[in-house]
Amino acid sequence: MRILVLGAGGVGGYFGGRLVEQGADVTFFVREHRKQQLEQEGLVIRSVHGDMTLEPRVITSQDEARPFDLILFSTKAYHLNGAMQDVKPFVGENTVILPLLNGVAHIPELQREFGKDKVIGGLCFIETTLNEQGHIIQTSQGHYVRFGEFGNRATERIRAIEEALGGTKASFVRSAHIEQDIWHKYLYITTIAGVTTLMRAPLGPIRDSDNGYEYIRGVFQEGAAIMMAHGAPLDPEIVVKHMITMEKTGYMMKASMLRDMEKGLAIEGRHLHGYLLDLAKQHKMEAPLLEVIYRNLQVYEITQKQQEQ
């Protein structure tokens, strides 16, 4: 199976690298700057699960290639529109699109652009970042991708994808309930990204603060109520389960959104928190905790734009 990974950053570079490590036929679609970096340094991964340096196969928008069987979208949401146009020449009749973005707003966009039948469900969980040399620094014990057909269908293509993605040091797991998995991840990342960016702190000190647990639980409950009003297939006990996961998370854990803010980079606030607030408005629901979180993210974005001028 010929696989194209869109991007070679913390997510695409890590999971694509693990696939290359086990012998998969993987090509990375990258920008010219990243291509030069990879040609000079290689794809360098420093991970708690084992380090490696690879010489990856890369292409840019200037290159030609025949259609791929599977395309992993590991881009940020604010790059989605450009990314969809970039990969169009590599999408054929039987190409399958596997998005690893956070949230849910990107799914209908991909379906409109490529056709509903070409897009399957996917998500990933990993703590990773790029250092100044462009090396991928991966620090979490969890490093998994979940994927599956919408409607929980057991198709020949999903079985072929499962076989192609198997056998790596990372965990690629086929899910029989991918829609629920996506919404559960959306709730978790929205809450953890929300509280860590609002407090500009890792998760541990927030938990230790007065009523810190109650505050985090309140954000989980607020988000879950909006999602359930929208008809999302949430487990009724998901807030309890997410709180248990949160309690077990490392003291110094920071959401990737906070790490991006610390570097002065763009963030996905509109895609995650803004979209959830749109759903709240649609269902005439109050969401005061999420409103404060989103205002904080908007202030950051306004400040960044002013600094760039």
What are the salient characteristics of this protein?
309 residues; alpha/beta; five-stranded parallel beta sheet; four-stranded mixed beta sheet; 12 helices; 47% helix; 18% strand
The spatial strand order of the largest sheet comes to: 5-2-1-6-7
Structural class: alpha/beta
Number of strands: 12
The overall pLDDT, averaged over residues, is 95
Helix share bin: 40-55%
Judging from the principal axes of the Cα atoms, what is the shape?
A: globular
Largest β-sheet summary: 5 strands, parallel
Poorly predicted regions are: none
Beta-strand residue fraction: 15-25%
How far from one another are the termini? 46 Å
Number of helices: 12
What's the Cα radius of gyration?
A: 19 Å
Order of helices and strands: EHEHEEEEHEHEEEEHEHHHHHHH
Can you walk me through this structure?
The chain has 309 residues and is an alpha/beta fold. It is built from 12 helices and 12 strands. The strands form 3 sheets. The protein has a 5-stranded parallel beta sheet with strand order 5-2-1-6-7. Helix 6 crosses helix 12, helix 8 runs antiparallel to helix 9 and helix 11 runs antiparallel to helix 12. The termini are far apart. The model has no long low-confidence stretch (mean pLDDT 95).
